[in-house]
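Provenance

Sequences were taken from public entries as deposited. Structures were produced by running a predictor on each sequence independently, with no templates supplied. The record for Protein MEMO1 from Aegilops tauschii subsp. strangulata is shown for reference.
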Amino acid sequence: MPAPGTPTTASKLEDELDGWLSAAALTKSPDVRAVIAPHAGYSYSGRCAAYAFGNIDPTNISRVFLLGPSHHYYTPKCALSRATVYSTPIGDLPVDLEVIEELKATGKFEFMDLNVDEAEHSMEMHLPYLSKVFQGHNVKVVPILVGAVNSQNEAMYGQLLAKYV
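Predicted structure for Protein MEMO1:
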């Protein structure tokens, strides 16, 4: 079930994303390494999110790490997805299974159950924007659900992920 304020048809969603990205009128930059975007329903934050996603130049990007806070599932760790693809109404995003396996091998991550993954909207709201921005480009996503991590674990996860930046 989509988050409140989310369009219900693919064409309406694509039109809204196109409109917001166009209105943001940002220049695409190859220097963008990270974005921080809101994850409320699009009627609340879609326009704002366009300013986060609108300057991404997808030309030389092959992998996107998608970190979202856990709203309904408690874990003191970060959790990885078991999904192989994240589907959106405007296109699918394959999960980078190689990186998921590398992160799993560290022993520092857990896996989300599929129902936890499907219920969490913090990452879901970014997927259509990613699908739109990366249309026509080969990109994979690495979804990571961020739990109630303490500062020591924040630093540890930062070190584990730093090699990919």
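The chain has seven helices and six strands.
The chain has a mean pLDDT of 92.
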